Request: fold
Amino acid sequence: MRADYDDLRRRIAALTEGEDDAVALMATLACEVHHADDRFDWTGFYRLVAPRLLKIGPYQGGHGCLVIPFDRGVCGAAARTGEVQLVPDVEAFPGHIACSSSTRSEIVLPVWDGSGRLLGVFDIDSDQPDAFDEADVQALRSILADTFGRLA
Ligand code: SME
Reply:
């Protein structure tokens, strides 16, 4: 089953209405997104906790690495550049961090609050190769902006 992003976006908006705690928002979003699509095998957040340092946040799936510096992995690249990382083949990505050996492709989006401050990154990993496309980028970007843009 592929995510119905319009439905997902509405559901997340309803569930998080009035909430302004970043971790509560991350937990709800990780759960709703993860269970909306069969391609998603690990779904979660890494939070910016110190200059150039990410730590694990709320997630769904198998265990995730606890700490990711900005200069490592796909998550580090998204945080460092502020650009969405769409990786069709993780083995071809220099410095990819393999938390799970079954991961074949991934998408990582930077997460900003309403003031443009980086909160962390949102990472989805798939056991299928080339699982993500531009439609995922657009929809997930807009869900993240809806959800975290309310924080200042
Ligand atoms: N694949 C990520 C690491 C995080 S986990 O897979 C949960 C990366 O290279 O940034």
Summary: Strands lie at 42-50, 53-60, 67-69, 85-87, 105-112, 118-126. The pocket of methionine sulfoxide is lined by residues 42, 64-65, 68, 73-75, 96-97, 99, 103, 106, 123, 125 (CB under 6 Å).
